[in-house]
Design a protein that fits this description.
7-stranded mixed beta sheet; alpha+beta; elongated; 23 helices; 5-stranded antiparallel beta sheet
């Protein structure tokens, strides 16, 4: 928001230097981005009077002028403008003047052999918009001119400073001069002098179609006024042009410029339609009931005021007249219905469109205007009609125009409900004021001053105050905490003392937080790279996903139910980018349940696809596909580092995984998750190698197990001081029996001498029979204090053999 300091001075008394004012506004939330001193554009430029004009002796297009600039003698200036003549007042850049807009430094010199001691300036050379290529004739711009030799800045409106402020989304009132004036008054105590508004002007109900009425009232309010006897060929007055120029808005004509001035002053966008042009477009008589609001038709064309021809779709909302689109609601009017030089009657629109619909419309056509920026942030409905009255007042000062009627669809805002501000709650949240090493509570008078300066109406209660916010701030000041924040902001956050927690205790990570960080480090050390994906995904016809209420895109409209799908997409992108492998993992949250009862589950999920190794010489540079046992071994290394022992059970009913190369991972007797090779069909669909493996684990159960005291707390175990005794044991069992189950049986039967059981061989073939498998284990026995003898090991070994026969009907081979 570009704020003209001279305009601001008309609305509020400003006594502070501009730098200090900018600093206070920045501390209050309106960050100053730039301070533009307009007087620098005309530094060293004074008012001069052309006394004589003679033809240049050596150039047909140059003139030699004698210009009086208030000195003892006129100065001679060579000028090339075609409109220079004797008897006019002009801006004269003296020798030494710097013109930033023209990038010129004025020096004394000669032009074609004739001395020239200055330059007669055009408006463009002074940084002002102009339709003329010639010099500026001050007599045409101002009737009462200062004395010769005086600075020209005041005549051209360059005796001003513009503050460029960044306005946050929660402060739409900052997009108006009145809003900034209220803020300055609250910060400095300056006296306000704001234009009076008629918040409830006389109007009649707008009778329109049911569809249009629903669309109009969805935004809040739609008003349309018929004004006659205007003149579109008349330029706006100089004061309006200066205000628009300093705000960065182009001037068009008096009608359009005044609607823009009201928008800058009050923050409410207005739009004027040429009444006669609407009748030509529609071929019918236009009445208030002719206006409507609807969604654009797919393929419908629209030419805006910027001459761009747009093709609309159902996302855009259009204002219609006899169902002809005449404006993009809240964004831009059409070229054909715009106010031009021939305009004599206008329909003045003052509406409150829904922020969501305006944002959607602007995005659908790739446009963002001053009007749409204000509608998108949200505006109070209270001033919608009042601004149309304000525009009528300003138009009446320019033309002998008359209001023929005002029609409104939608209800005016009822009296605002007061917000209770409790004195005790405010002091509890803000704490005491600190000054000179002493503390004191914020006085009630200061609280009342801050809120009154914002335009709030206060009524005292036993607990504090009952506060009614002004119309422009009712969207922002809706809760008690909002009022507390305003008081703190205006008083100054730095004036309140800091209150630290008591007692202060050192922070530390919990055991589970430490275990999670260790898990991340172990997975990274195993060759996997951690990634983080967005938890929002698109809809899926085959899976019930929870939709979010206000999605930005269809691709991010639902909460994810798993992590692995996005991991496969990551692998596809990496492998297509000529990467030889992609090993990734993520610790994230998945969502299930219903929109009213969302269940969040934290999971550890990962994918290993392709090969990840640096050496090639061992295989003559040939690729070595990742096999199931290598991939499973990487995960086992991580679990062993956390002192977790996972057993594998055959998994055949998971549609994602290869039916013969998948396992349910069991921890402490309960399923923890799964590991397996990606199903060949799914791998082919995703264009991934067959050797792609995924794992999915319940993170909370994993952390619970890892942080049990018997695992998490280090316990000293003495090193073995006696040698071990090893025996090999081979058995033939049913091929469906897992080696982990056999090992568990051996450990149980071999206590306390059996120290370790390791699978060393597994064989299936005709030699051992159909449906059978030979499994060989190496058993290590060790005593606590002495070397074991054969007669001590043999009974335990035999006990293990018999346990296998009894539990698994094993055929002993050794």
């Amino acid at each position: 928001m570009r704020v003209s300091l001279s305009w601001l001075n008309e609305l509020v008394q400003v006594n502070e230097p501009v730098q200090e004012l900018a600093q206070r506004l920045s501390m209050a939330g309106f960050e100053e981005e730039e301070i533009e001193d307009l007087s620098a554009l005309a530094q060293g430029v004074v008012i001069g009077f052309v006394k004589e004009k003679d033809k240049h002796p050596n150039a047909d297009k140059l003139s030699v002028c004698q210009v009086d600039v208030g000195g003892p003698e006129p100065i001679q200036i060579v000028c090339g403008a075609g409109n220079v003549r004797a008897g006019i007042h002009v801006p004269v850049a003296m020798v030494g003047a710097v013109l930033p807009s023209a990038n010129l430094t004025i020096k004394a010199g000669e032009l074609r052999g004739v001395a020239s001691n200055g330059m007669i300036c055009s408006l463009s050379e002074l940084g002002l918009a102009s339709d003329s290529d010639g010099i500026a004739v001050l007599d045409e711009l101002e009737t009462d001119l200062p004395a010769l030799g005086q600075p020209v800045a005041a005549v051209l409106g360059l005796d001003d400073t513009v503050l460029d402020l960044a306005i946050t989304a929660n402060r739409p009132d900052g997009l108006s001069m009145v809003g900034i004036a209220r803020e300055v008054a609250a910060l400095t105590g300056g006296e306000l002098s704001l234009p009076e508004l008629d918040l409830v002007p006389h109007h009649e109900p707008l009778q329109t179609t049911v569809q249009s009425a629903e669309a109009m009232t969805a935004g809040g309010l739609y008003g349309i006024s018929l004004i006659e006897a205007v003149d579109g060929s008349v330029a706006s007055p100089a004061w309006a042009q200066r205000r628009l120029s300093r705000a960065g808005i182009n001037q068009v004509n008096a009608v359009v410029d005044i609607t823009n001035v009201v928008m800058l002053e009050q923050g409410q966008p207005l739009h004027a339609f040429d009444a006669d042009a609407l009748e030509r477009i529609t071929g019918q008589t236009v009445e208030a009931a002719s206006f409507g609001l609807r969604k654009a038709l797919d393929g419908e064309t629209f030419t805006g005021l910027d001459d761009r021809e747009l093709t609309l779709d159902g996302r855009a909302q259009v204002v219609t007249c006899h169902d002809h689109p005449i404006a993009l609601a809240g964004v831009m009017g059409s070229k054909a219905s715009g106010v031009g030089a021939a305009t004599k009657r206008i329909w003045l629109e003052s509406a409150m469109f829904s922020p969501v619909s305006v944002r959607t419309t602007a995005r659908s056509v790739g446009l963002r205007t001053d009007a749409s920026a204000r509608f998108e942030k949200g505006l109070p409905k209270d001033i919608t009609l009042a601004c149309s009255v304000r525009a009528m007042e300003l138009l009446s000062a320019q033309f002998p125009c008359s209001l023929k009627g005002r029609w409104v669809c939608g209800a005016l805002e009822a009296d605002a409900a007061p917000v209770t501000l409790r004195r005790q709650a405010l002091h509890r949240l803000l704490g005491p004021l600190v000054a000179d090493n002493s503390e004191e509570r914020l006085p009630d008078a200061e609280i009342e001053r801050c809120l009154s300066a914002l335009g709030c109406q206060l009524s005292s209660t036993t607990e504090g105050w009952s506060v009614v916010a002004p119309p422009a701030r009712r969207l922002d000041l809706a809760r008690e905490i909002d009022l507390v924040e305003e008081v703190a902001r205006l008083v100054g956050f730095d004036r309140f003392g800091s209150t630290l927690p008591h007692p202060i205790a050192p922070g530390a990570l919990t055991a589970q937080q430490q275990a999670e960080r260790q898990l991340r480090r172990l997975l990274s050390a195993a060759g996997l790279q951690e990634i983080t994906n967005l938890s929002l995904v698109g809809a899926d016809a085959g899976e019930q996903r929870i939709a979010i209420s206000n999605p930005l895109l269809a691709e991010t409209s639902h909460l994810r139910t798993n992590l692995w799908e996005e991991h496969l997409a990551v692998c596809v992108r990496n492998l297509k980018a000529s990467q030889e492998g992609c090993w990734v993992f993520e610790i994230g949250t998945t969502y299930s349940g219903s929109p009213t009862e969302v269940v969040e589950t934290r999971e550890l999920c990962g994918v290993m696809s392709g090969e990840r190794r640096m050496e090639r010489w061992m295989n003559s540079g040939k690729p070595v596909p990742l096999n199931y046992f290598t991939a499973r071994g990487r995960l086992a290394e991580v679990m062993q580092a956390l002192k977790l022992e996972l057993s594998d059970r055959r998994l055949e009913d998971d549609q994602r995984l290869h039916p013969g190369r998948a396992a349910t991972l069991v921890l402490e007797g309960r399923p923890l998750g799964c590991f397996g090779q990606l199903h060949p069909e799914l791998a082919a669909q995703q264009d991934l190698p067959e050797a792609t493996y995924i794992f999915e684990l319940d993170l909370q159960r994993l952390l619970d197990a890892a942080t049990r005291s018997n695992r998490w707390t280090p316990a000293f175990k003495p090193f073995a001081t006696v040698p071990a005794s090893e025996r090999d044991l081979a058995i033939v069992v049913n091929r469906s029996i897992a080696a982990s189950d056999l090992a568990q049986c051996m450990r149980k039967a071999g206590k306390p001498l059996l120290e370790a059981v390791t699978l060393i061989d597994r064989f299936e073939g005709e030699q051992v029979g159909e449906g059978m498998a030979s499994q060989a284990f190496r058993l290590r026995y060790r005593g606590k204090s002495e070397t074991l003898k054969e007669e001590q090991v043999a009974p335990v070994h035999e006990k293990i053999r018999q346990a296998l026969v009894k539990q698994f009907s094993a055929d002993l081979r050794s």
